[in-house]
Each structure stands twice: as C-alpha cells, then as structure tokens.
Amino acid sequence: MEIGSMVAVTLVQIAVVMGVVLLTVAYMTYAERKVLSFMQDRLGPMEVGPWGLLQPIADGLKLFFKEDIIPSGANKIIFAVAPIICLVPALIGFAVIPYNGSFTLFGLEGGGVISDLNVGLLYIFAVAGMGAYGVILGGWASNSKYAFLGGLRSAAQIISYELAMGFSIVGVLLLSGSLSLVTVTEAQAGTWFGFIPQWNIFLQPVAFVAYVIAAVAETNRLPFDMPEAESELVAGFFTEYSGMRFSLFFLAEYGNMILVSCLASILFLGGYKAPLPILEFIPGFVWLALKTWALLFFFIWIRGTYPRVRFDQLMKFGWKVLIPVTLANLLVTALGVYIYNN
Amino acid sequence: MSTATTKVDTITVTINGQTIQVPKGTRIIQAAEMLGIEIPTFCYQPRMRPNAACRICTVEVTKPMNKMFMACATEMMDGMEVLTDSERTLKDRQTNLDLLLTQHPLDCPVCDKGGECKLQDYSVKYGSFENPFETKRKDFPEDIRSVALDFNSNRCILCGGCIQVCGDIQQVDAIGFSKRGFITVVGAPMGEALDCEFCGQCMDVCPVGAITSRFAKYKFRPWQEEKTQTTCTYCGCGCQYDLRTVDGEASRVTPIEGVGPGQGSLCVRGHFGYHFMEDDRRITRPLVRRGDKLVETTWEEAVSEAARGLAGAKAAGAGRVAGIAGGRLTNEEQYLFGRLVRDVLGSSNLDSSLRYGAINGVTVTREALGVTGMMNSFDEVRAADAVLLIGCDITQEAPILGLAVKEAIHKGEKPVLVADSMKTEIMKRGAGRLVYTPGTEIAVIKGLVKAVVDEGLIDEQVAKKYPKAVQALRSELSGTYKEIETPTGLKKDDIVALAKRFAAASKGIILAGPRVTGGLKGKSAMTMLVDLAFLTGGLTTPGAGVNAITMENNELGLALNGMAPELVPGGGSWDDAEARGKVATAWNCSLPNHQGDTMMEMFDAMREGRISAAIVAGTDPVGRLPQDAGAAEALGALDCLVVSDLFLSETAKRAHVVFPARSYAEKDGTVTNMEGRVQTITSCMKAPGKAASDWKIVSDIAREMGHPLEYANPGEIRAEAAALVPQFADTDVTNAARGGVSTEALEAWLAGGFGTGMGERYDLPAKLNEASGHEMRLYVGELLFHSGSMSTYNWGLMKINDAASLQLNSREARKLKIKEGDRVRLTGDRGSCVVTAKPDPNIMPGTLFFPRHSVLDDVRNLVQVVEGSEEEGSVPQFRFTRVTMEKVSGVAEAEASA
Amino acid sequence: MGLIRNIFMTELLMGLKIVFMQMFKPTITLQYPHVKHPIPDGYRGLMSLLRYEDGTERCVGCSLCEAACPSNCIKVVSDEVPGQPLVRYAREYYLDITRCIFCGFCTEACPVDALAMTKVYEAAVYDRRDLMFDKAKLYELGERYLEDGKAYLTHHRMDDGTLHPVEGLGDNRYHFPAVDAEHGGVQPEQIGLTAEALEVEETTR
C-alpha cells in the first residue's frame, strides 16, 4: 500500500476513533447522570430533548460560552496549558487501542487499530503518566489553596496506584508474551471446553480486581476522588477553572475513564473478540464497545454505591494491600507460566 | 421660719413582710414605692392629691384592722401591716379589671396608647382573660373637634386624672365630667369643643387611650420609639422631656415625671412644638450671595468666603467686625462664638439677644445680689407666701414658671399680686391686681416702693440693721403720688393696698417680666424692684427674693458667656480688669482695650461704615426689631454679613453667606435656664442636608482664618469654658434651692451701687407723660402658643393658633362697632397698616395687643424705638407705641390697602 | 467466615446489589415546572393583604405584625385615612421577602385577619429589589390568591372560610365610633338606652 492511502486510512481512523471517543465522553456524562438518578429513584436530565438526550450538547454549549476567568495571582501560562496537558494524553492513548480485527473497507485494508505498536501498553502508560502533570500544574497555577491541595493529592494518588496498576497487568503480559495490545487481544481468542472464552480474567481474576481498583483511583473517581473532594476542597485541582478550560479537565477525566475501561476489556475481557464462536458474526468493535460500556457502567455503579474513603485509607490500601497482592499475583503467575511452558 | 428644725415624725410600717420607717402621713402607695413594691394604679399622680377613683390599688391591711384599703389614699398608721400580693388583694384587683373591661372597647390595635397602656399591662399581669360579667361596649362618637386633643369616651375608665391635672396643676379647669352613670364622659363643659391652653397634660396622665394627640394620631407605636431625654428650648424655663423618634422622625414629646423645672409638666409649645425640625423651609445647604440672589454652594466655599470677608474687615482696622448671637445657641456654641469675635476677630463689638431686654435683669441681679440668673428656684416659687408679678404675663411668657406660681396660689391659698397692663390669665386668679397704662412699669414700681416706705411696711429686721439705706430711700421718695397716678392711671389706694399685701407675706417673691427689663428705663425699674425686695426683707429672708424672667431659651447662657460688650465670660463686668485678664490668659490673646458697641450702636456704626463685617448666629435682629431700629439698613450696608440659622430669616436674607444650623434635636450641648440650671440637650435626629452645629461653623471659620479653634465635641468646649464659667462644670437637673443673697454681697451693694445714681433711678422719664397725636397704646408681645419665629414653623402649633389679629377691648370695640374679623387700620408715627380685629375683654380700654410672632411685619414696624441710655443698659424699647385705630369700612378698601 | 468475607468483599458486593436493584424501582421525581405537587391549605407561602368584601382594606396599620416579626422584615407606616378622621390604616406597608422566614407569626398577630399567606412559593425574580413588597403588591397578591388566603385563615382557625370572623373569637373587624364633628359629646340613644331607661335617667337627675 502506498504511503498516501496509508495516511488517508490512518487519518480516517483517527477521525472516527476521536469522534467516537468524544461522543462517548459526552454521552458518558449523560449516562452517568441518568444511571445515578435511577439508582437514587430520580429521573435525571429530562428537559433538553427527549429524555434529556441533548443535555450533553446543551452543557457543552453552556461551557463554551461561559466567561473564562483567570484568578489574580495565577501563573497564566501554566494555568492555560494545564488542561491541555491533561486532555491530550487521555486522547492519544487511543492510538494503540485495537477496536476490531483486520478488515477491508472500500478496498482499503485496515488494521483495526490506528497504530499497532509493539510497545503499545508501555506507550499508554507513558502518556497516561503525563496526565498527572496537567493535574498538578493546574492545581499549582491556580493560586488557590484548594486547587493546590487537590493537585498534591492527585499526584500522590496517581503515583501510588500507577504501581499497583502496572503490577496487575504484568501477569497478563506474562501470559500473552507481548506488549502489543493487538497481540494481547488475539491471544485471548478461542474457548475452553467450548463455552468459556479464553479471557485473561479467568486466569488473572485477582489482577483484574486489582486493575479495576487501581483504575478507579487513577481516574480520580469515587470512592477515590480525593483530588476533587467537593466537601473538602470545593472542586479540587480545577476549583478555579471555568468555561472551556474547565470542560477540558472534564473531558480528560472521562476520556481517561474510557481509556482505562478499553484497556481493561482488552487485557482481561478479550477486547474485540466475541465471547463465543457463534457470536462472531457481530463485528469486533461492537464487542469492544459492549465490554467497555459494561465497565463504564461499573464505574458509575460504584460511584452510586460507595462513599469516599479517607486519604490515609486510600494510601494505606494502595501500598499495604494492593501492591503486595499484585506482587503475589505476579509471583504466582510467573510460576504458573514457567511451569506451563516447561 | 425654722422649717429645718421641725422634726418629722416617723412611723414603722410593714408591707409584704418588709419593714420600713416612713414619715408620718405617708400613703401606702408611697411606702410601697420606697420598698420597690409595685401597686397598680390608674388615677394616682405623685404631684396631685389622691383621687381614689379607679380602685385598682386596693390592698389588704391585716393590722391594726383587717380590711381592704385604697393604697393611694390611705395614710399609714404606726405598725400597719399591708399585703399587696395576698389572694384577697389579687382577687379584688382581678374583679376591678373585669368590671373595667365590661365597657372598654378593646380596640387596642387602633389605639395610640396600645403598648404603653396601663389597662393593657395590668390586664396581662392581673387580669382573668375570662370575664364573668356581661360586656356592654359603649359606642360614643369620638370627639375630634378640638385641634390638638381627641377624646374617645369609649376607652375612658373614668379615673379622673385628666380633670385633676387640668384643675390642680394647670388650673384652667377646661375639662370635666358630664352626664352620669354609664354615660359619664370627660370633655369640655356643656358639650362644647375643647378650647384651652392645650398643654396636653390630660393626655399624659391618661392611663388608657381616651385622650390622644391629634398631631401624632396613628403615627407611632410606643415600641417603635426611641426616647431621648433633652431640654425644651422654647422659653427660659428649660423643661426636661423625652423627645421620641420613630426612625429618626420626631413622633411626639412626653414629659418625665418629677424631673427638671417643670417636674413633669409641659406647656403647649413643649408638648406640640416638635415639628419645626422637619419643616421643609429649613436651610439645608450653605448659601452665598451672587448679585441679588443667595445661591447654594459647597461648605468649603461658604467657609472660605465667610472667612475672607471677616478677615478683610479685621485687617482694615480694629473694631470693624461685629458679632451678634442669640439664645438658640447652646452654652458651648455661645462660648466659642464669643471667642471667635473677641479672640480670632479681635473685636469687642459682641452683642446678643440679651439686648432685647434681658441684659437689665441679668446685670442688676449680678451687681446688686451677686447672682447670675434667678435668685429663687422654681421650687421656692412654689413654696412662696406671696408672689408679685410685674409686667409679666407669666402663663404666656414662661408657662412652667407660671405653673409654679399657680401652685403657690393653690397650695397655700396665698396671695399672688399682679401688676400688668392688661388682665392676664394669672391676674384673674391673683389676690391683688393693678392694671396700669402700657409702658408705665417704672412708675408703678416707684409707686410700690414709695408705698412701702410711706406706709411703714419696711421689714423690721431690715429697718434695724440698715437704717442708713432705708433713710436714703425715704428721703428720695418724699414726693407725691401725683407723678405716679397720672401716667399709670392707678389710684394711690390701690398701689398701697397691693404693697401692704406683699409686705405682709414673710416669703415674698418678685418676678419681673420683659416689660420691666425691656421697658423705659428698664435697668432703673429693675433696680427699684431690688430696693422693694430689700425693704420688704426679700434679700434677707431665705425663700424670698427678686427675679427677672428671661424670654429666650438660653439667654442666661449668653450672660454667663459674656455675650454683651459690658460682660466677659464668667458673667463678670468688662470694666473689671482682673476678669478681663483672666479671659485673656485663658485664650492666650490680648483683648481689645475699649468696651465694644452695643447692638444699637453697632447699627449706627454699620450705617456710618465704621463696621464693615458682621457675623450673626441664632438670632434675627431684622425680624425681631421694628423697622425704626434700622437693623435692615445697617446690616444691608455691610461688606460681609455671615449668618447661621435654621430658616431663612429676615437677617439671613440680607446676608452674604448663610450657614445652615442645627436645631436642638440635632446637636449635643448644654443650655442654661432662667434659674441657672445647666441642662443637657441630646441629639436624636439627623440634621437635614449639610446643617452643622454652630460651634462647628465657628470652628471652620476660625480654621480658615488661620486661628484654629479645634474641638472634637461640645464636651471639650464645655471643659474649656468651665475654667472661665464655673457654672458649666456640672449639669444639674435637680431642684436644688438657691442660696439667696450673701450678707457680704448685700452690704457691698448697699455701700456701692445702691446709693450711687439713686437720684437718677427714681426720676421718672418725661416720655411717660409725652403727649401724642395717637390715643391708643399698642403693645406687641408674646403668646403662649408662639414665643418667636421658631414656633411658627410648627404646623401643629400653627394649627392650634395662627392668630395674627389685633386684640382690643371688647367694650371699646362695641362702641366703635368693630366685630371679630373686621379690618381696622392702625396709624402711627412710623406709618400705618390694616389688620384683623379681635375684641377681647381682657384688654384694657385704650390699649391694643398684637402677637409678636405674626408674620405681619407691618404692625411691628409701627413701633417707634426708644433707644435706652447707657446707664439703662442701652436696651431699646420696642414693645410699645402709640397708634390711632379706625375701622376700615369697605372690603375693597381693605383689600386695596392689604 | 470473616476472612472469606473480607477476601471476597461480600459486603461491598451486597451494597452493589442493593444499589443495582434500586435502579428498577419507580422514580419519585415530579417534573417540577410541568407537574406540581398539590399545596396543602395552611401552607406558608408568600404573604398577602386582604380586603373586605366591600373593597376596604382590612389592615388597620396597628404594626403588631411588625412587632411579631422575628426577622424584622415588616415596616408599617400607619396614618389616618385621608378624609376619614379616626380611621386608621397602613399608609405604607413594606415586607422584605428576602428577609422573611415564612414563619407566619405576623398572620397570627394580625387582629383583623388582614394578613394571610398564599400557596405561592415561586418567589424568584431577576431583580432583588422586586422582593421588597409594598402595599400595592401585597394587596394585589391578596386579590389574586384570595382563595389561598381564605384557606390559610380557615386552616389556622382564624376564619371560617368566608372571610367572616369565626363565631366565638370575637368581633375581629374593628369598630370605629362615628365622628360627630357637629355635636361631639354623647347622645344617650347612641348607646342603646331604651326610652324607659332614659326616663329613669331624667327623673333621677
């Protein structure tokens, strides 16, 4: 394939993926409000469009037209750059997310992924780590004690849980033997006994649980939303943000949620693979979407269920429980893989 | 005469188990009050005899007999035991209230008394809330015919307090009970509309809302009001009252029982004259002259213009600046004004409204008796054996002192002797009367002194102790009565009879009015009264004495602050180098050496250009004096005239700079009443616009002139002034008795001023018998309802009385076929004018009376001013004149001349 | 057992289950601006001033509401009705809704049942000054929500629902004695004395 059509295909892929991601972000906010409402015997947004379906658009418009306020004493450059630093890593992480098997469309062959890096997972971890800078810088540049405290908490929390998260997926990598997410997905094809999909979740249940917990903490979601704890810090690191800058942080948070959910479904739930061979007539991206949505629902669900933990509890849990458990899991997996291979 | 040595018997009584020693004759309610035990009462008033009408004060007496007694009327016996909270007492109280409430309409929400009503309070405290009796509410139409007081007989509980206060304290008996039984009502006799002095005391004592004020009708609720104790500033009495305000607006005035000169009494001016502060005509911003007009300007601009004008005149030469102050200023403001003129402006041309007459009373009493102000307190007047009033319509000119005189009549049934030029209110109740021709006070007084000397009425002790002085007077008064009878129109026998009655009293008090001090040869007349008092023992007997009443509120303050060219601060004489030196030291300046001009001399100097700038505060010489005095031309000729006043007075209209001043309700400070009490006034209202206290105005001008007189508040000024005027050191609102005249002061007087000038003193002025082409004598004087211009800015008082009508003898009017409302023309040497006539039986034939407050300047301007000589205090006589009166026949002619 | 529970986080899972089941229960939300709750009688909504049936203002300007108000939000300026001496009314009446705590003490204090609370609770405005209700506004509210006012007074046992005083609670409408500027004083027949009683009166005199 000549270079021109490759670029074209890639650009189209980027456009489609970004479009889908941003639309998902938008409707994730709607879904979150709706689901939480139902869980709390409420109705949620109902006014804009049928059942409030146009609410995210209205919110977006509102945020777009809101006054942009930069607090006095804020470091203006960093204050302006921080939300972008936060959002960009969340979005470019999707470059290595395989959303489908290889396919052919209009005579062009697509890989089902924008870029199949052989170190895809590392890439994701690398850019996701950048997101923490946005949070910290935003908190610091706001010249507000609440934002600053939120930023510091966020840093501490992300560093702590990044470790556990890393350890939890190493087991998966041991099993699949590759850092490429396409390879990881393909390794989960097939079934055991004809009805149990060969997903890593069945081989790595502890890792899955640890990963989900770490993911919740990584994305600053309830019950681990200390960086933006409303009752203590007003809104945490983005207390002083308004209008579009605020919405960029918002997009980043939800983009991260989708990213970690995608990652979880790829690493543990077989990615775009259908669970059973008879269901393979359904395209792969639908499966990925379903699995991701299920995880996102789980995010909302635990938000509706659990209260926020204390910060010391969070750190204690991260360092004293989650890391030892994932380390132990790693040890057991390594032993198992060693024994299986030999 | 030894009241101090009589031992008061005490008895021991027990109330609710508490034992107390009380003087004999104490009533149960008084003893309970001493113990702090409350006994409810509607009709009991501490100042009046017990009425025992309301029966609510019934208490149980257990010893020496077991019975229910009226606490307000029962004098206690030795060993008496009383229970005020026993079951029986409470049950009786409840029944009493139940019975009262069978008729009371319970329209409390629309009743102005609601919130401070005794019936409300007692019903809550002692009532039953379930009335066992059949209620039968009255439905009498409410009487709103009177201009000031509304009578709602439905609410009346018939305690009779109002009738008592009207009869016993005010002694006008304007209201009483009419009808009987269930339909008994309180009101003016014969169902007429109430037309009285409108002192409003009936309203104050009413325990319920049966008598309410028309002016405050529905304008306040008692709990919304803020109470500020302050001093009334209308006349020289200086009564204490509570000025009540709702959100900074005056709502009404209420007296304070037992406090101040009035002891809880107020007159119509004090009671209803609280509207002028909020009048729209108040000056609110400084004005400066631009061409013919006065235009509003900024404060800084006005101050700098005033300072420039005054400084220019000061620089042009010594004594080119004059200052005139009035009694509206507080002591502090007067002191600072005096300092501005004498120290900052370096001029001795400082005069004040004392010059309208009061200066004679002040200087005579100070020189002769060594006291500034009245020699006797109001309480001593109340306790006097005889009161001699000369040229003094006391119930109009000083109503509260008038009440003290009335009380003297009432208490001891003692003679009050009145000499005046018309039948005044007090004269009608007096035991002795002399009605003389207006303007001949000096002759009447000379006649009285002569009668005392000739008829051997001289006090024995005085005759024994001071034979030389008595002899000097005797030889001076050897003439005949002819020279007295002719001008005064009195008979010798009448004068002698009055003198006899006065001399017979052991504690005789002389009260001289403004027609003595401000009349012809006023200072001599006043000195003669001192002689009269001396001869009858008035100067040697405690509780007796001779007094001149002052008209304006703080005239005595003017005297104490030395606001006249012949005075220095502290009330001393200008001639007294030591007193002057003290002032110069205190102010750290050198006072001008020569004595300054008096007001009339100032006017001459202004016309001749010797004075080119003046500052006038708190008085209105143009509006006060007749045209003949030339104040208008004089002040109009000035290069710079600075005036501070509440309203745009006649003087202010001619000013170059006008400062808006504050009324008494908007400033703090002290004022001195005619007794010499220094009493505080307290601000409780917001001054309109830029209006500032006069001390602030003076201070600003002084600062602008580069000679700062800086004070943070009037208290600091008073502290400084007290060094020169010791009277200002303490404020006194108690009824301390005056010390009388010290023997040294008396002997100094007899050795000095008494003898010198005696000849001139007893020379009657030729003016008395001067023939004139005009046969009627016109007197321009004060009314009870209006004392000057300030009171006419009260819409309430103007509603009660805005009379600008000429009063003339009714018999004479009948002869001339003049009916009330007819127009008559007055013609005098100074022009003529047309006024409305009002026949009055109290005016003597050949005499006319016109109220001074009237806006009709024409009548005042008819008066020919007689300038007083320097020996006579330089007081211009401007109250009397001679006119011809003729009826204006046609309406057209009346209108044409109007 | 405890250990197993801890390891499998059963309590957390129980919580998740409960919340999940809650999703399928019917919602209780009303679509507020479109659907409204019925407001019970006696609800303490916006204040209103009432008139008598003949259109005269009930308020006599006694300021008792002002005295009863715990948040000092009422200001009454009372006066005589122009041209009708002795008839008291509120010349001005101000109620600062921003300070009002809707306690209803003023209506309890009102001796003439002039104040009643309506069922209006939507007081939001764009201009804060609009929440300073004056007399005209309060009477307008009273007219517009007359039924609410009646229901309020009835509910709180101040009125029988017809804007007439409840039997036994006394005559609430204040009686103003006639003004007789001509004669004043008292005419015996005006207090209902019978002819016989008058005769007795005359003979004893």
Q: How is this structure best described in words?
A:
The complex is a heterotrimer of chains A (342), B (898) and C (205). With 342 residues, chain A is an all-alpha fold. Helices cover 66% and strands 3% of the residues of chain A. In chain A, helix 1 packs across helix 2, helix 3 packs antiparallel against helix 4 and helix 5 packs parallel to helix 12. The longest helix of chain A is centred in the first third of the chain and has 37 residues. Chain C is of the alpha+beta class and 205 residues long. The longest helix of chain C is centred in the N-terminal third of the chain and has 13 residues. In chain C, 24% of the residues are buried. The C terminus of chain C is likely disordered. The interface between B and C is large, with 36 and 35 residues.
Helix content, binned percent of chain A: 55-70%
Largest sheet report of chain B: 7 strands, mixed
From N to C, what is the helix and strand string of chain A?
HHHEEHHHEEHHHHHH
Q: Compute the gyration radius of chain A: what is it?
A: 21 Å
User: Beta-strand level of the residues of chain B, as a percent range?
Assistant: 15-25%
Give the oligomer, counting copies of the same chain as homo and different chains as hetero: heterotrimer
The tally of structural domains of chain A comes to 1
CATH topology of the largest domain in chain B: Rossmann fold
Task: Give the CATH level 1 class of the largest domain in chain B.
Answer: Alpha Beta
Number of strands of chain A: 4
Could you say what the CATH architecture of the largest domain in chain B is?
A: 3-Layer(aba) Sandwich
Strand order of the largest sheet of chain B: 14-13-24-23-22-15-16
